[in-house]
Write a structure and sequence with these properties.
3-stranded antiparallel sheet, alpha+beta, 16 strands, 28% strand, 5-stranded antiparallel sheet
Length: 276
Amino acid sequence: MNKKKNETIEELMKDDIEEKPELKEEIKKENGKGKRSKVWVILLVVLLALVITGSGYAAWKAYQANQELKRETKKAETVVEPKKKESETKKEVYVSATGGLNLRKDASVASDKLATIPDGTKLTVLEEKDGWYKVEYNGQTGWIAKEFTTTEKQQDIIYTNNDYKFQITLPAVWKGYSVKVTKPANNEATAYLYFQMPTTNADWLKQGEKTPSLFAISVYTKDQWQKWQSSGSPDGNILNDSGQYVFTISQSQAAPSDLLSLREMTDSISKTFKLI
């Protein structure tokens, strides 16, 4: 019965619509509004999706830009330190080379030689590079080979003469030295003391000079010294006058190439002379 009733109502409504055109037109308008509403809803949804998507993309790009900025800032803040010189410590070293060590213009064995630095010489390192030390010696700045230096001063050698009561100090490089004492028969002096070192120079060895003298200390009595003075040719530089003896020192006129630097130490050695 209900089904029949519903059908009757639907039929009546259909008949009513058919009989009233204005009602049919109103229904069409309402249906059109419904369709337009759906279209706007769809457009709004699409627009909202685009906005959300665009915001996300913008956020992602902003994040990437921020990360790139951080990386660039970090690079800028990272100070690239220049390569440091191997050493600027101003440390002190001692030459350890029998015959002396060459001071060169540049850090190379092929560079020009400026001077020969005596063994045992104390130097201040100004710079270190590739196994070389930059140093200053006698007013000249140059380079020396690091391998021929030591940071520890070698023990000096003290020579004591009990016969004539004096001492002198020799640099450590004089290790292996010998002293030859002679007493002139002509009574020109009381004694000559020749300080000698062994050589490896072939030319000197051929001549039988295995231990050439590099300097000599002469010992005179007062009378002997007065005779030398009156002759106008005193022997060597005066070291001291003890009242009993006058001491002088003189450097040898020649020396083999491997001992030249030791001979040049005569002046500094003379300053260590003292009576005991």
